[in-house]
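Troubleshooting log. The previous structure file for this entry was overwritten by mistake, so regenerating from the original sequence record. Sequence copied from the archived sheet and checked twice against the printout by T.R.
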Amino acid sequence: MAVLCWWLGHYLPLPAGTESGPACRLLFVTGLTTSCWLLNAIPIAAASLLPLALLPLLGVQSTDELTRGYGHPILWLFGGGFVLAQCIERCGLHRRLALRVVGALGPYPRRLVLGFFLAATLVSMWINNTAVALLLLPIGSVLVHRMQNLGELSAKAQANFGAGVMCAIAFGASIGGMATPIGTAPNALFFAAHEPLVAAGARPVSFLAWMLAFAPYALLLSGLAGWLMVRIALPLPGARIRRGDELLREARELGRWSKGEVRSALLFGFAVLLWTTRGDVQLGAGSVVHGWAHYLVPVGARDRFIADGSIAVLAAILAFLIPAGTPDRARLVDWETVRRMPFDLLLLLGGGIALANAFEPTGLSAAFGLMVKPLVGSCHPALLLFLLVIAITLLSEVASNTACATMLLPILRDGAVAANLDPLVLMLPAVLASSCGFMLPIATPPNTIVFASRQVSFAQMARAGVLLDVLAALLLVPMLWWWAFPLLGVEVGSLAGGGR
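Regenerated output below.
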């Protein structure tokens, strides 16, 4: 793949006066890094450092410029978010929330699967989708085994119930990650790719604006996907389990909230409040509601002086200081717990950002933009968006969503700029579609995690996943067209005319 990328670099329409050598070498390193990510040839963290090691040696970009990608504010946002997630896990708050959702729905097979779907979606809005799958998997496994011990379901229904719970955890975790900027890695990569445009004067997408635009889509998709799964893909009986009270005993015996749970919930709510109220909110007709950051920073830097990463780091530091209120734990989180944070994912994000930042200086961004430009205006804009969503969804089935976003967002951004489009027209469908790979165990880490439980077969996951792939694509285009784009002030009319 790396050699093929290098060879293709010689035939790209680079801008006049631009040498092909640096562009070809950058494509070679991009192909090599991506291949190592996809094939697990070396550990992910080591593969993510290949750009830092090779691009300076090949004369593409300096070490100083590359290290800015590995220290990007988005990484601090994710790092602080991971600490908050571990704080919640350490006190058991995630388990309480999940069991409350399940307990509220009653001992019905369909409702229990829908309960896990809803729990995974809601928790994944704030915690990385991989962590959500790992947190909910033990609870789901216990529920499946208890249902099996009751012996009230037929063999086929029991198999569908086990697969349904596992798929609900994996699919719900992926869907919930679309709702907030911190829900999944591609969202962070979107903000990193969009930042140069904001620095050049483009309208920023705030934390609150993202939630208002895409949380309704995530909740609607989660509800419809759950209904589709228990009715068609993995049909389950709707009748109440006669001995179902045994399944809800654990939820009833949770007891009162511990001090650690209360303090973790308050800290998490404090971080969410700061995230959602930091930026200004445009109300239309020139009316603006200023966020709290507007009053704290210099006038000339109010748009980007304080990043969400600073808020995440502040919340993480507070977690190290706030007492847990239990004899066995001094603070809400300690360093021994935080050391288990997936640093390889942070390096993965840093490597992707470093590669993306090198595209423009070498002329690759402009070249890909010229290649995308003829597609604009060649068909109805809604059809163009649908084809883009389908293509990226299929790609995400065989490549990680992070790798898809890393490769495609800079290309689509600069392609839109070259075609005189609002880059968000292409970037937003791409970043959301990259999280819609539901069909294969290798599509996303949550899929891999639940597949390893042996409660769901390849055929069951594929049958449920293909329906969700189609449903997600059919919902995404109208949601973008009539809800998200108008809310974010994105202009789509130029898609039909080949540019403004």
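The two ends are 36 Å apart (CA to CA). Archived copy saved in two places this time.
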